[in-house]
């Protein structure tokens, strides 16, 4: 199937989208990019995922992950379509890590949080990883920030790493917006605008539609992928990995889905990966 032009990457208005439609508009005379969307479909799939895997977060932690998912999805939509992105946000109070991953080729986002074995650090830390395309070398930015407001953390990242002003807005009812400065931006307007004004931008400012994208919550983890990821550790020391047991329970590092890995299945993977199989383990 041929690749659709950017302007056709989401269904038309008379179709029912299976995901969250995120729009990109250029605010003329302000030189600002407006990214906005109703992210309720992403949140619904996130909660269905939690229910399917018996996962439950403390309400305060759940709020932080929702906020991170919203910020990250709009960030992904502002980036080129072939990029693969990830954020890791390390908070000290509460002590947890938030992880988000995005695939702009297929417009998938996923995320999870970690509350165990979180390292104590003198600052909250924001890590941004970027691959310009699948398989390309990864680039990382690291920024310290204060407080537990995820929108503020992302805005601090934009200011320090992207060297651009960015403003996030929770518009209510799972609608969110992101404003990003471009060259010759009206900085005074961007720093002063509030959520109420952002809701009314279409009637107050001249907007030029750039693109519409459809984002879905999806990880894509499978038993085979988890087995392949664990193969080097099993090859080094099967006993260290399994101990005395015949199976282990592991969580996907991207979405926290549980997978039961058996010793027998791992031995079959190792046999396949040995020289003479499909590929070798170095």
Structural commentary:
The chain has 282 residues and is an alpha+beta fold. The protein has two domains: 201 residues, Hsp33 domain (3-Layer(bab) Sandwich); 51 residues, CBS domain Like. Helix content is 32%, strand content 32%. The strands form two sheets. A ten-stranded mixed beta sheet has the order 7-6-3-4-5-10-1-2-9-8. It has a two-stranded antiparallel ribbon with strand order 11-12. α7 crosses α9. It is elongated and about 65 Å long.
The number of helical elements comes to 9
Total domain units: 2
* Major sheet: arrangement of strands: 7-6-3-4-5-10-1-2-9-8
Report the top-level CATH class of the largest domain. Answer: Alpha Beta
Radius of gyration: 21 Å
Number of strands: 12
The SSE order reads EEHHEEEEEHEEHHHEHHEEH
Question: Which blocks of ≥5 consecutive residues have pLDDT under 50?
Answer: 1-16, 276-282
CATH superfamily of the largest domain: Hsp33 domain
Give the biggest beta sheet: 10 strands, mixed
The chain-level mean pLDDT equals: 90
What percentage of amino acids are in beta strands? 25-35%
Structural class: alpha+beta
Assembly state (oligomeric): single chain
Helix content: 25-40%
